[in-house]
Fold this protein.
Amino acid sequence: MSIIEVKELKKVYNGVCVLNIPNLEFKAGQSLGLVGNNGAGKTTLFRLILDLIKASEGQVRSKGEDVSKNEDWKNFTGSFVDEGFLIDYLTPDEYFQFIAKLHNMSHGDLEAHLNRYEDFFAGEIRGKKKYIRDLSKGNQKKVGVVGALLGNPDILILDEPFANLDPSTQFRLRDELKRLDRETDITMLISSHDLAHVTEFCERIVILDKGEVVKDIHTNAQTLKELEDFFIQKIKKEDLASGPEIMEES
Amino acid sequence: MYLQLFRHRWTKTFRSTFFRQGWAIKILLGLAAIYFMAIFGSLGVFMKEILEEGFPDAERLTPIFSGGILMYLLADLVMRFFLQDLNVISVQHYLSLPISKKKIVNFLLQSSIFNFFNLIPLFFIIPWAIRVIPNEYSTLHTIIWPIATLGVVLSNHFLAIYLKRVLAVKAQIFWIIVLLLGGLYALHFFQVIDLTEVSTALFLPLAQSHYLAWWPLILALIVYQVNYRFLLGMTHLDRWQTKAKEASSLRFAFLENRGPLGMMIANELKLIVRNKRTKTVVYMCFFFALYGLIFYTQETYVEGYSWLLFVGIFTTGIFMINYGQFLVSWESSYFDGILTRAYEMETYYKSKYYLLVASAVVMYILTLPVVYFGITYAGPENVPANELILKVLGINTATFIYNMGINSAVLLFASTYNKKPIDLSKGSAFNYQGTGAAQWVIVIPLMVVPLLLFQAFNVFDKPQAGLMVMAAMGFIGLATHRYFIKQTIKNFKEKKYINAEGYRQHD
């Protein structure tokens, strides 16, 4: 069953089409990795799914309802796209409490939930008298990711969750996402520039290029190689297109 | 190389947010600048006539002029201290480039000279040097005197930036300076020493002597050197790192435990007390609670109703006007979070509504003692105090209820037209970020409409009826606030994409 359906979706900025997806469906319980170079349209797609920008054409349906018409999706969708999701003058604890309250979580539930992420926080987030705005980028990301997981969402949307994280935390996050994929039926949409990470735990990988879906792969042993080849080929094509002078230089 | 650095500084100024503001604000600020320059300019040019009138027996005017210099410098020091920018951080990006640190520090110091506060003294110095000095002293001093006086100004300039920089590292210094300046002024006030005489003794030689005239320049060089050494020792970035302030323990727990609505009000209160710009808004409110004193004490203002009505709307609604017109804009930095989280929009807007209403109550209570004591002790002599107190209280009560019922709803609805982001960490003096056409238009329903409404009754000599109608409208507004909130939410949903787009345009 598809939990999110993208239909005839187009986003045009000043006459330039930055996203054009005729049809894309996300299966419930599936983890999907979204890869593509900067400007490929990953964040635009996420923003459209989260109803943060208005589609020029088409629609996104979440559990059958158009996200721009019905707001029920907010109750079962956790997301973290950038720091613009964090209330930066709160402390992380206050922020978590606020989100928990929006989801009608009890204090005990919240504590239980946060305790699971003690390792992930590495003792730098909770119980500290620090505002979110004074945290490092990496720690802000931790707050955002864990905040997105509050309220046990059915859908989790993370944009570049591995960027700015230190190596240990990257692995912890990857393992946590793997665990979620294995133990719950959460649907994950995760974009990343790190091909190794996404192939590790995503069952399906979609490559966006210039606003279009150019590859849609079910992950297997060859996927990482395939992805790398795609981007290497892309460089070669661009070099060819830009003329012989540059070829000589390289 | 050096020229290149100055060129960067120039580009930086012209690409700053100030010059990217809307035309309306640019023109307004431009006019303000011209106004101030005209004032200082004419004050400078006619200083001779002004002093002649004040001291008709004086043989020479320069000693009197010199007597004022020290006072000016002290005031100037305080002004610079609070208003002058320090661009320490602006050289960060040069530190890793192959430019010697000495050059960077020299550049930092020298580029600071081009500054508004160094421009103003010129308006006084140049006319005086041309009009007065040659008549009273030697022609040679027409050249020596302005140069020496400029040296004084520059010494003050470098002293101010030195103090401010030291302060950035050691905050305690602030109180030492306050004590020192306060003590100096107290000594003058209680006539232990006369600062005017000290000033004359210090600065008159600039116009008389050929040798003593050079001390300000030497002083300027010394202060420059002190700055230079200090900065050279501070070029490592970590030395500037001020420790992040510890999170406030003020959590408004009584609100936090009242469900999502209480939580949202608590969040907004935290927003207000934990950010620089919103804090300034609160300080302004306390200041404006006293605003009425200007009017209550003058017979011309208290005769009719219009002025007092204006004061009533303004003082009981000052928080609404200053904070309320940027509703939601304050939250621009996490607006995407608001849109994607399971925010109940009705609760969200209700929390803002309650906050505005509560602010009117607080301001109303704050104005009560101001009205009572202000009129009792400083009211106009020919007006019976008790009558006036009752009159003002009536006006304030009517405007207070009107503010609660109508203006709060107007501001709530208007907030859906805000789409300019606000950086909360910046102070609010001279900060026009987030100001757009909406902020100018909003004054009409907030201030002009109630004044006209009242006038409709006042022209028929029924001011009491006018106040009653205002209060009645306020009560109707309070009773139907749910309807206003619904309309606001409807508009919010229509405008949210445009607003979110605008809020993402951070600098």
Q: What stands out?
A: The CA atoms of residues 162 and 170 of chain A lie 6 Å apart. The mean pLDDT of chain A is 90.
